[in-house]
Amino acid sequence: MDETSSPPATGNSSTSLTDVDMDALVHCASYLNLQDVSNMAMSSKYLQKAAYSDPVWESLFRQQWSPLVPSGLSHTSTERELYLSRRTDVLQFKFIDPEVVNFPIRAKPHENLCLDKDNIIFSEGSSLCVMNIDDFRHGEDSYDTLRGHTAKITSLRSIPFEETCLYSSKGQKSDNLFVTSSLDHSIRLWWKGSCQRSFRICNVSVSAISDKLLGDHPSKILASGGSDGIVRLWSLDCSGKRSQDDLKAVLYGHDKPAVLMSVAGHKTSLLVSISRNSKVIVWDTATSSANRSSCCVGKSTVPGAPKAMKCHESLIYIAAGTSVVAIDIRTMRQVFKVNHQEEVHSFQMLPEKSLMCTGLAQRAMLWDVRRGCDIHKGEAVAELDGHRGNVSLLHMDPYKIVSGGLKDFQVHVWETGNGRQLTSLNCCSLSDSRQGYRCSAMAVNGSRILTACNDGHFSDLCFRDFNNATIPSLSSDSSILQSKFWAPKSQSDTEE
């Protein structure tokens, strides 16, 4: 060691987190996004103090809603309260001036409607259609028809690209891969406007595909159900040289077509499938056996025709006939049952809030699953009225429930926790509904909603984005943090 060099410190002095200057922490936190700020706030009380400071939430507000600024608000409100309050209002559609884009489309019923970033994706018969919202905003016509199937598309699934073995670059990280099944005996994987891969079954129509991929990365498996009652497992591994290599296993057990398929929440190798005759089978797809029927690790049946299914942790929630049944996958025993006096037409579940919603005739019902093991109509949290026919369209997220049906010209928006009605939206831009016009499909993603109308002669797609809306609806509460106006930034706001 050089004699002139200072020896290393041997004292017990150290620097702790609280020694970091608070102003410096706040300055650094102002460059973070909402998720990072939330994570920072949960790390420690000292970091939470920095994360909750006004400059951080002013920065988040500018990132999300510039050039809007809050106005006419109480001076006792913190910037965090204002940000979160506006975010809730935006996600609950509490404004009358959203951005509206109407799309000229063919006079065909539109199915499998999906909002993906700035694209609208839906199926028309055997074709998959993609429209870019930004292009229409700027007066450009961007309507791509993706052809490949030769018969009607039966289902459409969106899968994050990074969850597949096809993921190879950071540029694909935020993209989605789309999977379609068809009556033409094939499954196709779409990305960037073209078919990247296809699976084919000889003389068997595909009746269902799994809602998620099975297994852990990189060995990802897609499950499909056929009209022959056989469940097939397809590998997304790119190493296969021939199409025959894609088919990894066939599972026998159903004697009718599988109509619903879902991956278990607590174990990604478990697949739950329900056939048309309401037979429920749980498969362990990680099991290796020459006799593939031995992959079955549980069986049950539910009363009535199956309509929808959702897996959460070790439970399966199945809407069928006049009830919703929850079954524990580990024991295949019924945990609870929600009873109706009529047929269930749609079903959505919000497990983190222990809430679920069922669509019935002319109304929907909101339920709290913690209220007992055998719940009846009188024990519902709320009854969501105002529909003309069967409630077949249903969306549910932590902020809102959106409900509609084929006889409705409007969709209704309700508060998730208590079922209080927030607003109603016309399904298309027409001021008055034409005779026979109906809401045929719906897609909701955060502050955006897409509705499709069709009467056999005319069609309409209406896109609404509430993110930059400024005028609150009159139906909103008049409390100081809920009823407010959001104005564009004025010159005086920028002067210091």
Automatic annotation (TrEMBL):
InterPro entries: F-box-like_dom_sf, WD40/YVTN_repeat-like_dom_sf, WD40_repeat_dom_sf, WD40_rpt
Domain of life: Eukaryota
Keywords: Repeat, WD repeat
WD repeat residues: 219-237
One protein family per Pfam: WD40
Name of the protein this chain belongs to: F-box domain-containing protein
Protein source organism: Solanum lycopersicum (Tomato)
